[in-house]
Design goal:
The structure is a homodimer. By secondary structure, chain A is α/β, with parallel strands linked by helices. Chain A has nine helices and 16 strands. Chains A and B meet through α8, β12 and β14 of A and α8, β12 and β14 of B. β14 of chain A pairs antiparallel with β14 of chain B, so a sheet runs across the interface.
């Protein structure tokens, strides 16, 4: 209930919970998504946002390019057939708490957060009217996508910054509060390109309640209201599940390596699906039988 | 039976199998081990090789520095108190099949393989009298250690070369036959420093019968005759267990990402132990109770 536009009418009540599903789709994009060729990821966003009938808001708060980032994505989304494209460049908390800014989101069917610095995003819009307006649209069924810093900010707990390297170590990553459209996970981006296994493992060692999602560049996880994530794009999403792991993360000092043992890991390329709630991959035969299933060749 | 020198008399019959253990200890070193400060790793090798009563053979076939690599390690091992140090620089198969070269190993209590190019090592000494002499000394109880390329060559199946990056992809690593002192595993080195998660995951996807061991620089796995590996040094050993994993590795084409799902992963810093045969970590309380247990602070 409360779904306010028809484009997401495929979102049926969740069988898992029996409740009426009212949330939209979340896209976590690992950064550097293709903008000029087949645009698989941005095209999927445009389709989920409703195409010609869609209203897409681009939030470029994280970007160091100022309004230019919003302009660039505006051109792309217009090129992908979106009827109304609206860049919003809130750069202060005063702006983010200005009802005039928040009103620009009120009819959005798609909201896109650019890359940049996720701490700038959280410190500027966290807890403001603008953040509340985004969540409201999401609950009404809008698709909310973020690339790079924007992807990190999707979860409730986000990696604010950190060190690279494959081995988990103490003090490797700092957390901050994200927007919370995708709770219970923690997203890392540019995952394979920036060698971020270690920092994601160290965060999972300290926070096994969160499911770690490492998204490669030009790759996205598309999470539907049922909590099932489909991978699209050129790379993989690496899933790190520490639910059954043992660790000494609570007693390690300085920058020493952290022990983590019994982590379950999945590396899923395009076309594979993973149930984030049950923490298990959806077997491929079932996947092919899913209505609307869209199995890319790997 | 068959144990020919007293220094390894601490190797009691294995409780797990009940059989008399006749193999020596293997050390897989991730490269760039400390040579000038506390020398934890090289010091452990020197101790296992018998100290003053020890006979250490240094095999520098892999090195591009020619006999210099052997000379450098000779100085170090003499400095660590080894009584007899003997560099052997076999650079052709004719030398490696020369009984005079093989005889230089005949009384070794420790054999150390330098870094360099593991394919040079396997192609020069694989299947020769020299390789046979090394295996013979190992079976008699000698410690066999390898650093970097030398570590890779310890297993029966070794990574010959490959690409870096965190995401497993098809054709990411090429295999070759190693020396086989540590079968049933596959070793990768400079693991965190060279971003080698992807290539080790891709090899495990294709070969789940092998246990993946990614060894960081200045870090070593010390594997006793009972198949239990102790981690020492500054970094971690990452263990990748694909026994229960699902994969599409058999059907992926080109250089596309490989799906692997359900891998069990362990990142173990200094002081932790792992049973390579049972594929499980030895819990820390038991560890402290082990005779000779040497739990470094992490």
């Amino acid at each position: 209930m409360g779904r306010s536009f028809g484009i997401l009418s495929r979102n049926v009540p969740s069988k898992a919970t029996g409740r009426q599903v009212t949330d939209g789709t979340v896209m976590i994009i690992g950064g550097a998504e293709d903008k000029v060729r087949d645009r698989v990821i941005l095209g999927r966003f445009a389709a989920l946002a409703g195409g010609e009938d869609g209203v897409v808001v681009i939030l470029s708060t994280a970007s160091s390019f100022g309004p230019l980032a919003g302009e660039r994505y505006s051109e792309i989304f217009r090129g992908l057939g979106i009827g109304t494209v609206r860049p919003v460049h809130a750069m202060t908390r005063i702006q983010a708490n200005d009802p005039a800014f928040a009103r620009q989101v009120r009819d959005a069917t798609g909201i896109f957060l650019t890359g940049g610095n996720q701490l700038r995003l959280s410190s500027t819009i966290g807890g403001t009217l603008l953040a509340e307006a985004i969540l409201e649209r999401f609950r009404a069924g809008a698709v909310v996508a973020g690339t790079s810093a924007g992807a990190s900010a999707m979860s409730s707990h986000m990696i604010a910054f950190g060190a690279s390297g494959g081995t988990p170590k103490h003090r490797m990553a700092a957390l901050a509060a994200g927007l919370g459209v995708l709770p219970s996970v923690i997203v890392d981006q540019h995952f394979q390109q920036r060698n971020r296994y270690g920092r994601l493992l160290s965060v999972i060692a300290q926070n096994p309640s969160l499911l770690g999602l490492g998204v490669d560049e030009d790759t996205a996880g598309v999470v539907g209201p049922d909590g099932v994530m489909e991978v699209i794009g050129r790379g993989s999403v690496t899933i790190i599940d520490g639910a059954e792991a043992e660790t000494d993360a609570w007693e390690v000092k300085g920058h020493r390596p952290v022990m983590i043992s019994g982590v379950v890991l999945h590396a899923l390329p395009s076309g594979y699906r993973f149930d984030l709630r049950r923490r298990q991959r959806i077997a491929t035969p079932d996947l092919k039988a899913l209505p609307g299933g869209n199995v890319a060749s790997t």
